[in-house]
Amino acid sequence: VENVRLLDRLSSRKAALGTLYLTATHVIFVENDSETRKETWVLHSQISSIEKQATTATGCPLLIRCKNFQVIQLVIPQERDCHDVYISLIRLARPVKYEELYCFSFNPKLDKEEREQGWKLVDLNEEYNRMGIPNNYWQISDVNRDYGVCDSYPTEVYVPKSATAHIIVGSSKFRSRRRFPALSYYHKDNNASICRSSQPLSGFSARCLEDEQMLQAIRKANPGSDFIYVVDTRPKLNAMANRAAGKGYENEDNYSNIKFQFIGIENIHVMRNSLQKMLEVCELKSPSMSDFLWGLENSGWLKHIKAIMDAGIFIAKAVAEEGVSVLVHCSDGWDRTAQVCSVASILLDPYYRTMKGFMVLIEKDWVSFGHKFNHRYGNLDGDPKEISPVIDQFIECVWQLMEQFPCAFEFNERFLIHIQHHIYSCQFGNFLCNSQKERRELKIQERTYSLWAHLWKNRADYLNPLYRSNHSQTQGTLHPQMAPCNFLYKFWSGMYNRFEKGLHPRQSVTDYLMAVKEETQQLEEELEVLGERLANLQKSQLNDNKVQSKQQDRSKQLGLSTSNNSLANTPQDYSNDLKSFPSRSPSQGDEEDSALILTQDNLKSSDPDLSANSDQESGVEDLSCRSPSGGGCLPSEDSGKDSDEAVFLAV
Amino acid sequence: TDEWRLSCINKEFSVCPSYPPVVIVPKSIDDEALRKVAMFRQGSRFPVLSYYHKKNGMVMMRSSQPLTGTNGRRCKEDEKLINATLRPGKRGYIIDTRSLNVAQQARAKGGGFEQEVHYPQWRRIHKCIERFNILQESLIKLVEACNDQSHNMDRWLSKLEASNWLTHIKEILTAACLAAQCIDREGASVLVHGTEGTDSTLQVTSLAQIILDPRCRTIRGFESLIVREWLQAGHPFQQRCAQSAYSNSKQKWEAPVFLLFLDCVWQILRQFPCSFEFNEQFLIMLFEHAYASQFGTFLGNNENDRSKLKLPHKTMSLWSWVNRSEELSKFQNPLFEANSLVIWPSVAPQSLQLWEGVFLRWNRPSKFLDEAHEEMINIIKYNKELQAKVNTLRRQLAEMETDDRMQENL
């Protein structure tokens, strides 16, 4: 469709004219401006909603909201075209078969072997070995070999040694969707562990001997403690309501030596609405400070984030400080339970704060334990009530921790944002389907590529320059402030206003430091080379000297010593040398661009698709985005000064 | 320059008690005319030059409100002075830091604003920046919110919102951006005033300079900005910074005007972390000394007070202490890379944050953040060391090679 206008959300006067293309996988908007030919790519699977608004004099507006929080507003001149686009996008954004998803057609030109290597990057058996398992207390169980006991669990499950197959199967019958207690994390230092399950089918009074034995077995696997915590992550009211449906929570009287604890994290529906409300605030055209803060509060989003963090902190404390094992569950044990277990793990174990470890963590607590990616993130057309930003919240929790502990994580914010992007993009096979069983049936590993390999290949882009493996923050358990900690939770504009470049800091400390570190590394290498060359030269000169020593001995020595002298006395040389310095230091940036170069750094991001999608590339030459309101006040176009001021006056 | 001159008209503080002895005025206006203009402006604060934008020769001036009163008094000299600052064919903007409503009300008390008919080349823009009590109450509420020990997220956010502190920040920054935009992008000159021209006026003129002028983002440049635009320009520090947030007696003159300015600078610094030579600690230090200091720099309400108190003889200057290298190193931003551009901060709510370094200083653990800062310094220090080493080796090598060649030639 030609002559489509792409509106800029921040300033209504800045619109780009161009052509809209719909392909099998992307929506592509190409600007007419022959110089830039700026392209905006959006994957169909990223589209979360399409809204056709009332036709105006200029055309028919179409609003596309994406799952990665990009909002695109198009104006299509002809109502008919607009309708066609609308109808096609609705179809394209809601695939009904997995085979329609991008990852089945996406081909990064890797051969078979490389693809297989990619899938092997994260190996969960290796991970349990790293934790120190199997050992005297824990073993791998094959009860779920053919998904016979629980179809949303992985085939390989780790359970206490004393839990026989009989106990496991018995316990599974007493748990929602047969998700019996299984090991999530084992703390080597003190034998305490985190286990996870779904709610018990206790109703008002039902009991199950095997389930009681199962919890007993978990307690016995930690000889250092005579009780375990059972953490129900739901609000008490919700849990009680479940009893009427024959579900519910553990009765302390029936289980020996458990301490039961509610932690009120709201359910997926509350979270979905909360995000919705927060995004509405983010979308406001020019909100006042009060509008924004009030809207943020009203959305309750940060309150929910805090609830998840508090739960994670509680569990980490129980494990690390009290040495008590914890069993975590919610209703089905695949949403809140996954959030809480992974937050606790990241607090407890520095390994999960490394890039590789974080991949392992997501693979372990989310992918393998049957978090319903397909339902939650709407990969295939499904029930909109199943959609909820569960893993988004976990990712935000990690970001909040990064803000509090800037040196503790090996990866940076970009890493998190790209993972979030790909959870929705369906470009890689990792997050397809609702369970391991479904993925195996679809032969995902043979037909698609792994995101982890892709991120790993570009890991240089995702490094946190402040991370040092021997730094105190990278050791042991993290202890975030418990109280008063409300103000420690901040709005994450890097995520939720990700595509409003004008709102973000114009210079990035991370990128700056990354460039410095890169330069440092080059310098180190050069130093070595120079050192070698110098040594060689000295040697050869020495040899020379020996040959010619008779006559020239004296003069040579003199020459050397003068050269040393002159060295100390020529500071003016210094700057000259600096100028000819070849490496691309951040300081070398031409003045005009110095601020921009930094942004560029973050743009040359590893992901061709990502940067294309988000038209970051073009963000660079978009000088006007440096202007206060995100543009529109270049002298060239400001004949009408009124409108220009409107930028500030309107506020 | 050939358009502006230094005037010693205020030598004994005789014309305007809150101005310094020497001011910069248009060349074509003589001292006699200045005296008449002073009569027409509140507190005799006639328009003076605040900033000259080298790039295009546009200027920013500041003054107090004109005393037009209800019957629309005029002053020919005032009109002449203001017009004299424009180059032929250029236009200018008068930024009034009060809302139109407030400005109109001021007429009843003898104040007022410039009528556009009498200043045909100027357009007036009203921006609403709050004053006095409202700011003070805002600060008190904010500090109260920050000290709230409750665990309730909602209460924290609503208290933060109710304090309106960030709203004020946004208003001030927006006005400053507007002034800077007029000068740099529109190629127009600007006159800024509110009522007295000692508070919001100075916030706007000084922030606009930080946005426009890279020199103001260096330590020395920022110090001289504060001397020029705050101390010499007669911001009444003694009245405004007497009690700070914990004052119960609501003193009429108390207001965190300077703290708001520093907060705004911090907001810009946060958005351009590599463009400032100083760091957050420098701003916090200035905040502390403005309220309580062993140095004489911030005492008194204006230069006149300070010279009467003979402060330069009796006390030490803060600057002389700060500028010693051992102190200075604490305030240097390791990321600084001179940036000669105009920097346009974002004023969207998503881009503005609570200044934790000041307001949560005693309530939040800063250990991990300090460690990060240290790490940053180390990374950059190590880089510099290596650079020096490589350069040394390079030179050594080059010299040996020439030596070699010389030898071969021998």
Automatic annotation (TrEMBL), chain A:
Region of interest (Disordered), residue spans: 541-651
Residue intervals of the Myotubularin phosphatase domain: 118-496
Domain of life: Eukaryota
GO BP of this protein: phosphatidylinositol dephosphorylation
The family this protein is said to belong to: Belongs to the protein-tyrosine phosphatase family. Non-receptor class myotubularin subfamily.
Keyword set includes Metal-binding: no
GO CC aspect terms: cytoplasm; endomembrane system
InterPro entries cross-referenced by the UniProt entry: MTMR7_PTP, Myotubularin, Myotubularin-like_Pase_dom, PH-GRAM_MTMR6-9, PH-like_dom_sf, Prot-tyrosine_phosphatase-like, Tyr_Pase_AS, Tyr_Pase_cat
Binding site for substrate: N267, I268, C330, S331, D332, G333, W334, D335, R336
Pfam families: Myotub-related, PH-GRAM_MTMR6-like
Keywords: Coiled coil, Cytoplasm, Hydrolase, Lipid metabolism
PROSITE patterns: PPASE_MYOTUBULARIN, TYR_PHOSPHATASE_1, TYR_PHOSPHATASE_2
Gene Ontology molecular-function annotations: phosphatidylinositol-3,5-bisphosphate phosphatase activity; phosphatidylinositol-3-phosphate phosphatase activity
Annotated protein name in UniProt: MTMR7 protein
Ranges in coiled-coil conformation: 513-540
Domain Tyrosine specific protein phosphatases stretches: 299-343
From TrEMBL, chain B:
A single MF term (Gene Ontology): protein phosphatase binding
Any one GO BP annotation for this protein: phosphatidylinositol dephosphorylation
Myotubularin phosphatase domain segment(s): 1-359
Superkingdom of the source species: Eukaryota
PROSITE patterns the record matches: PPASE_MYOTUBULARIN
Entries under Pfam families matching the protein: Myotub-related
Any Gene Ontology CC annotation: cytoplasm
Family: Belongs to the protein-tyrosine phosphatase family. Non-receptor class myotubularin subfamily.
Record-given protein name: MTMR9 protein
Species in which this protein is naturally found: Trogon melanurus (Black-tailed trogon)
Gene this protein is translated from: Mtmr9_1
